Amino acid sequence: MPTPVKSVLPVVLLGCGGVGRYLLRHIVSCRPLHANQGVAIRVVGVADSSSLLVADDVHSSGLDDALLTHLCAAKAAGSPLSSLLGQVSGNYQLFRNPEARSKVIDAATKLGRTTGLVLVDCSATYDTASLMKDAVDHGCCIVLANKKPLTGPYEDFQKLVSNFRQIRFESTVGAGLPVIASVTRIIASGDPVSRIVGSLSGTLGYVMSELEDGKRFSEVVKTAKSLGFTEPDPRDDLGGMDVARKALILARLLGQQISMDNINVESLYPSELGPDAVSTEDFLESGLVQLDRSMEERVKTASSRGNVLRYVCEIGSKGCQVGLKELPKDSALGRLRGSDNVVEIYSRCYESSPLVIQGAGAGNDTTAAGVLADIMDLQDLFQRTA
Ligand SMILES: NC(=O)C1=CN([C@@H]2O[C@H](COP(=O)(O)OP(=O)(O)OC[C@H]3O[C@@H](n4cnc5c(N)ncnc54)[C@H](OP(=O)(O)O)[C@@H]3O)[C@@H](O)[C@H]2O)C=CC1
Ligand SMILES: N[C@@H](CC=O)C(=O)O
């Protein structure tokens, strides 16, 4: 006998790039698994940077799986969502910006306090912050892979986490690794976390370990991009900002009321190659090679001392810093290979022997799996009443 549906989770997805598309594919392919658990995820809307595709009647139906599959194929081919209009049939409407934003609010207003709604942010922009805050006001649950809304003004962070039962942001730190959940559990048990140390960039982990194998910096950064490890602009990774955002999220979770300005960040590229001076394309094409020599020398110098380079994040009572460190090859961080992350959490209970979490720390598949697990984790808030 089929398992009765206990929870229906309506979802609006912001962003259908690498992570967002994987999420939609996971949702579709996990239907039988979720049905066995009595859960149905109903995707009622999907937005990209210019439009929103939304189900005709968000109360009673979602976008069907055939449409979601088409949508993923179109976005993967580089077409905007609006290209589906007139090409693919289905019970949906398309709204372009700025109307698209108000339609997301409409869905949040309609569903937030009735059936409930999960607004999922898989974009890579600060622009979604106000939408996410509005969604919180409308009683919606929110799930983020996007770190930016949580790393703007402290008041935004406070607002977004104000109903902590209704937010999940596991994938913002460590992709699919249970870092936020572990820190949250330790804090909830009254065990004060004193320090978090780790290698939290899949991109920089991959780049550093490939450099040790004698590969060129410019080549491995491009490969990291093609493997889906980097941010849309890899300078977010190479400049340390992506790791700094993760550090800020963790520090704020520990109760530190700090902002990005309070984090010491070491950049691996000079300001002449920064986003204000050079486009992403030019940076990839001709900027990166300018860094090959100096990176090769840094790696060789470290190696001559029996060490390796790792981009390390440290959060403690005396502040936060992220930067390149020379570490013994056989240390926990030194042994890291590829895009793996490792996080050591120190607290009273984990003082001499920290809680260590390690595993794949980047990639669209892993990250999307983390986002899906976050959505599923909200199922108890979506009990079907009828
Ligand atoms: N890849 C990884 O390993 C990990 C990624 N993340 C995070 O996941 C997020 C997504 O990454 P990724 O998929 O690689 O990024 P992409 O650049 O591939 O995709 C971003 C998507 O967001 C859309 N978008 C831009 N602005 C808006 C907006 N205002 N409203 C709605 N959608 C918008 C873009 O639209 P359009 O298609 O029109 O450009 C695009 O579809 C990032 O924040 C990243 O930091 C987190 C952990 C790990
Ligand atoms: N670009 C990030 C992806 C996850 O946040 C990384 O390399 O770790």
TrEMBL record:
Q: Does the keyword NADP apply?
A: yes
Which residues does the UniProt record annotate as the domain Homoserine dehydrogenase catalytic?
A: 178-376
Q: Where does NADP(+) bind?
A: 15-20
Q: Which residues form the active site?
A: 246 (proton donor)
UniProt cofactor(s)? a metal cation
Give binding positions for NADPH: 147
Aspartate/homoserine dehydrogenase NAD-binding domain sequence ranges: 15-166
Catalysed reaction(s) here are:
L-homoserine + NADP(+) = L-aspartate 4-semialdehyde + NADPH + H(+)
The enzyme's main class, written as a single word, is oxidoreductase
Q: Pathway, per Swiss-Prot/TrEMBL? A: Amino-acid biosynthesis; L-threonine biosynthesis; L-threonine from L-aspartate: step 3/5; Amino-acid biosynthesis; L-methionine biosynthesis via de novo pathway; L-homoserine from L-aspartate: step 3/3
Write the record's keywords in alphabetical order, separated by commas: Amino-acid biosynthesis, Methionine biosynthesis, NADP, Oxidoreductase, Threonine biosynthesis
Q: Name one GO biological process term.
A: threonine biosynthetic process
Kindly list the positions annotated as binding L-homoserine: 231
Cross-referenced InterPro entries: Asp/hSer_DH_NAD-bd (IPR005106), Bifunc_Aspkin/hSer_DH (IPR011147), HDH_cat (IPR001342), HDH_CS (IPR019811), HDH_short (IPR022697), NAD(P)-bd_dom_sf (IPR036291)
Might you give the EC number(s) for this enzyme?
1.1.1.3
- What one GO molecular function would you report for this record? homoserine dehydrogenase activity
Keyword Disulfide bond among UniProt keywords: no
Family stated for the protein in its record? Belongs to the homoserine dehydrogenase family.
In terms of PANTHER family, this protein maps to:
HOMOSERINE DEHYDROGENASE, PTHR43070
Official protein name in the record: Homoserine dehydrogenase
Q: Which organism is it from?
A: Panicum hallii var. hallii
